[in-house]
Design brief:
0% strand; 115 residues; single chain; mainly alpha
């Protein structure tokens, strides 16, 4: 039974007891005088960056709702202007045969089209 690793040796248990007994005399840490006052002064004197000011402005409900309203309004106006029917119907352009042959010629054609 002396080789059993689950049972600690007497020297290990006395060493652990000594370590735990050394913790009995520990006192709680005490801050320097006026620590709380200095801490509160430092917290109250922090300056906000421009990004913090901007995010505080944007997160206001009135600004957020008005911004969303403007975006939706601009989308509706853009859709209304794009889907509006023209007053005069556009006629498709008629292409003559000569223009069509010029557009339809193949790059690899070596023959002369005109005799």
């Amino acid at each position: 039974m002396q080789n059993d690793p689950t049972i600690p040796n007497q020297s290990d248990s006395t060493r652990i007891d000594n370590i735990l007994n050394s913790l009995d005399n520990i006192q709680p840490a005490e801050p320097k005088p006026f620590f709380y006052t200095r801490l509160m002064a430092r917290i109250s004197n922090t300056t906000q960056s421009s990004w913090e000011n901007f995010s505080a402005l944007i997160t206001r409900p009135s600004v957020a709702f008005s911004g969303i309203f403007l975006i939706v309004l601009m989308n509706f106006m853009a859709a209304w202007l794009n889907f509006k029917t023209p007053a005069v119907a556009e006629q498709p352009e008629v292409v003559g045969t000569e223009e069509y042959t010029q557009m339809a010629t193949n790059f690899f054609d070596i023959e002369n089209i005109k005799p």
